[in-house]
Write a structure and sequence with these properties.
Blueprint lengths: L3 H10 L10 E2 L16 E9 L9 E6 L5 E5 L5 E7 L2 E8 L6 E2 L3 E3 L4 E3 L2 E3 L72 E14 L19 E15 L2 E7 L4 H4 L18 H4 L3 E10 L5 E9 L19 H4 L4 E12 L2 E8 L13 E11 L2 E9 L12 E3 L2 E3 L5 E15 L7 E16 L13 E13 L4 E11 L32 E14 L2 E12 L4 E2 L18 E2 L10 H7 L6 E2 L3 E2 L1 E12 L1
Parallel strand pairs: 2-9, 2-10
Antiparallel strand pairs: 1-4, 2-5, 3-4, 3-6, 6-7, 6-8, 11-12, 11-32, 12-13, 13-14, 14-15, 15-16, 16-17, 17-18, 18-19, 19-22, 20-21, 22-23, 23-24, 24-25, 25-26, 26-27, 27-32, 28-31, 29-30
Length: 627
């Protein structure tokens, strides 16, 4: 029995326990049927629904034996379920009555000993009540009164039809993949309709940085922002829309994510971005917003346009979905979102091929002359294995901060002519699974991700010369689940080597963003950045909808990068000129040349410098909720 509703019917009717009893029996017939004590009874069960497929409660359902020797009656429950569990084998007829509906009569049903027969009854709502009988001539006939319709829920707001227990048609629905990193843990939504599936996320954390930055600022991460404070990381409301093959997804982005994610996009913004109409402002509170259409080709073909997540770097955009809170550099320093068109083709229920046509590398706008192209191949042949390949290329994703032909390391450089490519490949393997192990280990799994890429053209090279610009990184994690997945421990880490620093997250010194840049941490071709990290995470998951977590993390850099005790905020706060050096008085020097700034700040206490360190140790904990 694959239909979940059918299983629910059996459970409610009590057929497995023999508790269902008739509530009404006819008087002893003149010629009773002789039944041996060893005779087995049969059953009839079913569900009463109206024309909108909603359950009909408190209807009187009557079962009459065809030879007139027995009669039974019962009342349908709140879920529309009715049942007769002690019917003698033979032919029976069923009828149902309830106020507001005409009587429904079923065809003759055959009851078999020790077996159940199912028959669902549809109750149709009449348009009007029947006209009353003719009154005596002396009295006027009363007007026909319309029947009061039974309230119904619109079709789009009804719960979806239950699917099969094993779904081999819907992509990746044939098995349970909720153990995977970057995958939500809940196996089904808390609430769902045929039109809309909600997605609500809340994320609160407390972080303690061993460097004790006086301005509470944590540098170089996409999930860790403030030290020594309780902060709301994410507040998101939205979900998926789906109706007659039309698709849409909307998810808002409030909390710290609403500020920290857009500032890493150099293509737009009110300081140094591309063109007018501040796109960072326009998209500031939007995490995902796309719409499209689904075709029933193979196992599905979707075409969507808008802002969608990238999943380059394996980890999910959203912390609730991940094994650890702070991912390694390969994930933190690669895109969280793309703006463009996504095509998803599922040739089988285990394979997805997804091309992208996008504005650029984590960018709301297009940097220079070319759009970016890329795509994902996702293969999950079994419940225990995942292979995902992401590739990106063609896009000219460097903001033109210098005049064409500007000399960098003695070589003329034109960023507008620089192209980028990147490959990101991951595997996830579950190598142990035992849910009957009590308080012991219930599951074990690992992930491994490797990334490589470079920039070339316009005076920049991939692998040689003074202006080389490339990226190489990897990360690996192992996770243990305990006590039937109530707890989990994850250990892992990784490294990145990024000559040219084009993917290294810019420290927010004096409020600097990716588009403004900062003279205190330049990102010129040839400049090196090598970093590594390690993480230990513990999660407590009492329900599918909540995760309590704690984490220890260590990060190291070969250059001063992380916020030290003095912090990265100038005296008296940001002065609004992040692209220039700042004086110790808090005022801007008006220049990004250190020589000129030294002269300009001579009467203002000299040039101020942020306190940057080459290592960081952090302890954090928090709670995340997803509905």
């Amino acid at each position: 029995m694959k239909n979940r509703k059918w299983l629910h019917v059996l459970a409610v009717s009590g057929l497995t326990t023999g508790l269902a009893m008739p509530i009404l029996q006819a008087a002893e017939p003149a010629a009773p049927v002789r039944v041996s004590p060893q005779t087995s009874y049969g059953a009839i069960v079913g569900v009463l629904t109206d024309s909108a497929k909603l359950p009909v409660a408190r209807a009187t359902v009557t079962a009459v034996r065809a030879d007139g020797t027995a009669i039974r009656a019962t009342v349908s429950g709140a879920d529309g379920v009715y049942s007769f569990a002690d019917l003698t084998p033979g032919a029976w007829s069923i009828s149902a009555t309830v106020d507001g509906y005409p009587e429904a009569v079923a065809p003759e049903l055959t009851v078999v000993a020790s077996k159940s027969t199912r028959y669902d009854i549809a109750m149709n709502i009449p348009a009007t009540a029947p006209a009353p009988a003719a009154a005596p001539a002396a009295a006027p006939a009363p007007a026909v009164v319309a029947a009061t319709p039974v309230p119904t829920i619109p079709l789009g707001l009804q719960a979806p039809e239950p699917g099969p227990e094993v779904d081999n048609e819907t992509p990746f629905a044939f098995a349970d993949f909720t153990w995977m990193n970057a995958t939500p843990r809940n196996k089904a939504p808390a609430f769902d309709t045929k039109f809309f599936t909600p997605d609500i996320r809340l994320d609160v954390n407390y972080m303690w940085d061993n460097n004790h930055p006086q301005d509470h600022t944590i540098v170089g991460a996409t999930e860790s922002f403030r030290s020594g404070e309780f902060q709301v990381e994410q507040i998101s409301f939205g979900g998926d829309l789906h109706w007659e093959n039309v698709r849409g997804r909307i998810l808002t982005m409030f909390g710290l994510f609403g500020t920290t994610t857009p500032r890493n996009d150099a293509s737009s913004g009110n300081i140094g971005g591309v063109g007018q109409w501040d796109l960072q402002d326009a998209y500031k509170y939007v995490s995902e917003a796309n719409a499209g259409y689904h075709w029933d080709v193979n196992h599905g073909l979707n075409v969507d346009a808008g802002i969608f997540v990238s999943y380059i770097g394996l980890f999910s955009y959203y912390n609730f979905d991940n094994w650890t809170y702070q991912p390694s550099y390969v994930s933190s320093n690669t895109p969280w979102f793309f703006n463009g068109v996504r095509i998803q083709w599922f040739p089988t229920n285990k394979l997805k091929i997804e091309p992208w046509i996008i504005n650029g590398w984590q960018s709301y706008a297009r940097f220079n002359g070319h759009l970016g192209f890329g795509g994902q191949i996702l293969w999950q042949p079994t419940e225990s294995f995942k292979l995902v390949l992401n590739n990106y290329g063609v896009g000219e994703d460097n903001l033109q901060n210098y005049p064409p032909g500007e000399l960098i390391n003695g070589v003329p450089v034109n960023f507008a002519k620089t192209s980028r490519f990147h490959t990101d490949d991951s595997i996830e393997v579950k190598y142990y699974d035992n849910h009957n192990n009590g308080n012991g280990i219930s599951k074990m799994a690992f992930t491994f991700t490797a990334d490589a890429g470079c920039q070339y053209g316009g005076g920049i090279t991939c692998t040689h010369g003074v202006n080389k610009s490339n990226f190489l990184g990897a990360m690996a994690y192992n996770r243990w689940w305990f006590h039937n997945d109530l707890y989990a421990i994850t250990v892992g880490g990784g490294f990145m080597n990024n000559p040219g620093r084009y993917l290294t997250l810019l420290p927010p010194i004096n409020g600097a963003s990716a588009s403004s840049g900062t003279p205190y941490f330049t990102e010129n071709p040839g400049q090196g950045a090598f970093m590594y990290d390690a993480t230990l995470n513990f999660q407590y998951m009492p329900k599918d909808w909540i995760t309590w977590w704690s984490e220890m993390g260590y990060r190291h850099s070969n250059i001063p990068y992380f916020a030290g005790t003095g912090g990265v905020t100038p005296p008296y706060g940001n002065n609004g000129s992040p692209g220039d050096f700042t004086c110790n008085s808090g005022s801007s020097s008006g220049t990004n040349s250190l020589t000129q700034a030294t002269a300009a700040c001579a009467g203002n206490g000299g040039v101020w410098f942020p306190d940057l360190r080459d290592e960081e140790f952090k302890i954090s904990f928090g709670v995340m909720v997803k509905f």
